Amino acid sequence: MTAAPGRRSSTFTRLLRHGFTDASAAERLLDSAELAPLRDDPVLLDALGATADPDLALLGLVRLLEAQPEPGARRELLDTLISSKPLRDRLLGVLGASTALADHLIRHPDDWQALVMYEAHDLHPGVEEFEAGLAEATDAVSLRVAYRRCLLSIAARDVCGTTGVAESAAELADLATATLRAALRIAGAAAPEDVALCRLAVIAMGKCGGHELNYVSDVDVIFVGEAVEGADETKAVRAATRLASHMMRICSETTVEGSIWPVDANLRPEGRNGPLVRTLSSHLAYYQRWAKTWEFQALLKARPVAGDLDLGAEYVAAVQPLVWKAAERENFVPDVQKMRRRVVENIPVAEVDRQLKLGPGGLRDVEFAVQLLQLVHGRADTSLRSGTTLDALKALAAGGYVGRADAAQLDEAYRFLRSMEHRIQLFRLRRTHLVPEDEAELRRIGRSLGLRTDPVAELLREWKRHATVVRRLHEKLFYRPLLDAVAQLATGEARLSVEAARERMVALGYADPASALRHLEALASGVTRKAAIQRTLLPVLLGWFADSADPDAGLLNFRKVSDALGKTPWYLRLLRDEGAAAQNLARVLSAGRLAPDLLMRAPEAVALLGDGDGGGLEPRSRAHLEQEILAAVNRADGAAQAVTAARGVRRRELFRTAAADIVGSYGTEEQPVEADPGALVDRVGGAVSDLTAATLAGTLRAVVRDGWGDSLPTRFAIIGMGRFGGHELGYGSDADVLFVHEPRDGVDEREASQAASKVVSEMSRLLQIPSADPPLLIDADLRPEGKSGPLVRTLTSYAAYYRRWALTWESHALLRAEPVAGDEDLGRRFIELIDPLRYPADGLADEAVREIRRLKARMESERLPRGADPKLHAKLGPGGLSDVEWTVQLLQLRHGAAEPGLRTTRTRQALAAARTAGLIGDEDAAVLDEAWVLATRVRNAVMLVRGRAADTFPTEPRELAAVGRYLGYGPGHAGDMLDAYRRTARRARSVVDELFYGVAER
């Protein structure tokens, strides 16, 4: 029958108003023979419009009517649908939310009648009711049908709002319990002889054990088996294993009715490599000797659900004391730190932002935070020992372990995220934690959660809001109660006891909790504006400190900086208002000694850590640095004051460089870890070398002005050597230099030499005067005749010496020579003088090559410190800096005259040029570059951590861990770091043996 245009238009509009997106298709379905009796019934249309997806609900209803076996059944369904609002809401709600359950109803068209009942016991069924629903199942297929029928009733109450997300999750866990019991009953019926031999208990773990299961989730279990009286234990365990395996297959295997869910026993001792069933004594032996912290965390949710419940209760009673002692374990802190690092790198990049469970601000953040607090405080407070996340969170708030407001926000966020997860999984009954990208699916999810005005936009906005709350509170959850405990300002709310506060600080990595709590009290107590801002900042800062290798040092240093700057108006405002500043400061203060020491000498350098006018952490150019230092020198009275000013700028810029290096190596929320370690090394080397050059230029100006006025009687230039000339200085490097001068016209050479020598000695003295600023040591030992020769020579003297006496090692050393300060023309002419020496036109004679090799071998044997492990010595060990640099420099000496690209003082540039010229293969060049970068980073890390230079890894565990964190290794992975260094160095040494020593001459 064709409707009149006016009527069609009216119906079309009405359908759109009721939430249909394809009104034309809906009109056709409403005109179908199956719905003829209800075509104009407003009750049906209103009910469809109330569903998550009216189009889907209408299509499902028509399919269900078509599936009815005969007309009488169809009329019964329609009559009941119109007369019974509970059925109408439940049935259409399910059809509009789940294609999987709609498909079940089509296959089993009588199952809609399971939704008709609306008695009190139907509203909140438990295990007993679900067991009754599964009682007639005799095999895997009939169990699936009965399971889906029960699931249908849970979903119906869920989508209609009869039950909340926590109640639905509990019902799903109860249904899983009943299903495991039914599956075990079926398995036992198939093997009564096995049942007769053993007692088998099924322990639910994970979300099933916690009474908070998803619609589609692995059901985690552990099996415990014992022999019945008089039976052989070995045979009994084998029988129990057969029963357990059969039970798992009944639930997991795919049949004509699909599967129920996988039963996962991988949380058992030794995981999938361990026996499926163990006796109780075997479980205990494992947990007492071998179990890791995460296994005790998992046992928080252990609950006997099927089989021999008495045996299950014995198991739980036996393992619970071990669970609540986990926080006392020696390795608890590194284990906790490892667990806290999300496994985001295992999530495909395209999925990170769509992850409800593992992504930042996801469900795992809430669950982990609650479980960690339970492990720490549950040993003394039994009220915290619930396996259900929301119940445990409520108990933590009631006991003062979590702030009530924080707990309320987390509760709301967790319920919303779990509701989203339920709706996503319910649609196709597939296990997923990804928020879909399809707009129709997002619309359905939004409408199912009551967001009807603009479902997609509202859903995404609410999701992001709740995820942000979780991210913000995830760390604060641990620390805010600590502040409440020490500040003692909040009234009418339970607080942590002193002992509980100490336990929490220890669990989070603080080695001296008493001192840490004293620092917190000093920072956060009182009613001043300063204390109020500190109470806002500290919960986040404490988390960042705890993420480092030395949280105690981070907190202590923060107190020192705050004490020094607490009265300045900008300090706390900077940390509060500029997002990057607070985390940058936390990283810098807890990464080692060097940066905090530099900062404590002038705390106002904190301003560099923000985004404002302090210049940020970007390194400043040499021209900019030199301009600032020379301006300060010109304003000063006398050379001493001028050099003090220059050293002050150097200290500040060293802090800027160290801070940028730490932030780039650790990463922050706003700035990820620098992906290219070579870029970090080049940035540090360039910045420190430019700063050293600018400092020398300023000191030279100060000394000349103080002693001679505007002009020295001789032209004077400083030539950088070694790492200085190569732009590769580290934080603790001396400045290797040569000094060259040239008397001005009419000036006696002796007078000129005396003036030049006085300049050198005065520069060295002023740069080493003890003060708050780090000294700058000048090393001129690479000059002609070494320590026996004059500190400064004329250009003519250098020419005469090099022409007559130059040794191979001196040509080698001159490869790094580059003017860094003083008379530019004189510096340029010095370079013109030495170029033929360092890039000989005919390359190196064989005897010169042998001499270089002998010198290198002697240096390795004589200069390596006694007792040092050569394989871990970053400078002189095999595959270390010396190996790589001498290999590259030998190529420069041999081929520099013919290959212009090799004429550089920088190791990595020369190596790249050698590769371009075909002098070294791509793979070998990459191996050498990787080793040089790693060895340089090790030296930088040791200086940052210990505050003094060294070429080997530290032996003190915290210092070694801090070096590891700088190099990208998490807690507990110092051994992996050392192994990786050895591998990298070993590969590099293999290349050096071939290229430098000619073990396999090319």
What does this structure look like?
The chain has 1002 residues and is mostly helical. The chain contains 44 helices and 10 strands. The strands form 2 sheets. Strands 1, 2, 3, 4 and 5 form a 5-stranded mixed β-sheet that branches. Strands 6, 7, 8, 9 and 10 form a 5-stranded mixed β-sheet that branches. Helix 9 (127-134) crosses helix 11 (165-190), helix 27 crosses helix 29 (579-590) and helix 30 (594-600) crosses helix 32.
Question: What descriptors fit this protein?
Answer:
disordered N terminus; mainly alpha; 1002 residues; elongated; 61% helix; 44 helices; 5-stranded mixed sheet; single chain
Let me know the number of strands: 10
* Separate helix tally: 44
Helical residue percent? 55-70%
> What class do helices, strands and sheet pairing give?
mainly alpha
Overall, the morphology is elongated
- Strand proportion: 5-15%
Low-confidence stretches: 1-7
pLDDT averaged residue by residue: 92
Largest sheet: 5 strands, mixed
Radius of gyration: 37 Å
Distance between the termini: 91 Å
